[in-house]
Amino acid sequence: MDFGAAASIGGFEERIVATVDGLAIYVRDYPPLEPATGLPVIVLHGLTRNSRDFEVIAPRIAALGRRVLAPDMRGRGRSANDPDPAHYVPAVYAQDVLRLMEALEIPKAVFVGTSMGVLITMTLAMMAPDRIAASVLNDTGPRLGMQGLSRIASYVGHIVAVDDWDAAAAVIRDINGPAFPDRADDGSFWLTFARRTFRVREDGKLELDYDPHIALSFADLEEDGPAIDLSPLFQALAAKPVLSVRGAISDILTEDTVALMRALKPDLEAVAIENIGHAPTLEEPEAWDAVLDFLARVE
Predict the structure, then answer these.
(1) Separation CA 174–CA 41 (nearest Å)
(2) Which of 124, 154, 167, 214 has the smallest number of Cβ neighbours within 10 A?
């Protein structure tokens, strides 16, 4: 498998890395502006998303003098689908990240994870804690409530293809509108969101840019079941700097969960983004300012 750059586009190089089981993982590699001033940053997207979610944030971080790696996790974006959907779990994703770090000779990095990306980061902290210097955990923590997970399960893998970008934007607004109430009438916001989330098929129709089989991980979800407790995973990060970013109206990361995080890690840094649900884009001024300040103080 070629670990070299396939192309240089828009300030980043495109790379392909082979996983231990032979799948191709696509990575956007943003070089730091000279001189490099800190460890690389690895940005990890959410369940149904891909590296395009960081097309604004990644160049900003690179401008600080840090290399930024933005992979499409298996089954998303330009990475290969897994023939075995049972592999669509954080433990396998974390192994893929370790393989990526080995292939690109990165012994240690700062991690920025959104939603599923948080779960991958916490899992990686259990598997290989020395590979993590610090982490930004965007709108997910060590306790996962069934209400938010059930909402996600209601649409993952169930959205049909649409004919044009206006229709795609409408789908995205229907799914995510409650999380961004201030953007209800902002057509450009939803169109950008759609372009990051949909792909064009050979027949010209647009479909969400992920393998619908990722939905199988929700097959046994019980809406009235107890919250999922991942405290041991979060505690694996306790010795490292952590910034929690929370959407103030999120149904995934609650105030109670942030309080639990503080109890487990008293020096936790945390910020809530007003009138945003799950999950902040990190492009919001309050979120970006918090990330910028945090990165300025970590290795």
Answers:
(1) 32
(2) 154
Report whether 134 contacts 238 (CB < 8 A): no
- DSSP states of 142-173: SEE-HHHHHHHHTTTTTPPPBSSHHHHHHHHH
Same domain, 165 and 180: yes
Give the burial string for 165-178 (b: 16+ CB within 10 Å, else e).
eeebbbbbbebbee
Residue with tokens 């893929």: 96
- pTM, 2 dp: 0.95
Do 104 and 71 form a contact (C-beta atoms < 8 A)? no
Structure letter (DSSP) for residue 290:
H
- pLDDT tens string 64-96: 999 999 999 999 999 999 999 999 999 999 999
Where do runs of H (alpha helix) occur along 7-115?
57-62, 90-103
Q: What domain count does the chain have?
A: 2
C-alpha span between 53 and 74 (Å, rounded) = 16
Tokens of 218: 């929700």
